[in-house]
Amino acid sequence: MTINMQICWLFIVAIPIACVAWTVTHEEVFREPREYCVKRSQNGKTLLERKFFYLFTCEYCFSHYLVILVLAFTGYKLLLEDWRGYVFAGFALVWVATIYMSLFGLIRQDIKKEKTEIQLMKEKSDK
Known about the structure:
Layout: H1 3-26, H2 31-43, H3 47-54, H4 59-74, H5 83-126
């Protein structure tokens, strides 16, 4: 695979990683399992138990495990054709997915702020 194609794959494959990591760790559809994991990560009896359940509450941590699955599924390697290509690809995918999630979080925050400001303006005008 050419370097240009590898970079295209990097930015495209990071999209579903970011999407799944964000959905599991932030969205309402997974609220109950996430709350369970938060409790177990805070109140677990062992360090291993607390760290295991924490993985499902942190998008950055969870994205590492998603990347491992994606690399196993796709065989994507970055720069090198041996096992080191998997290592480079793994860290690069996590980095790009984290950037995507950060941008998405900022956009959502800005939209929520605008909706709140509009609601406050409507309430003032109704008075």
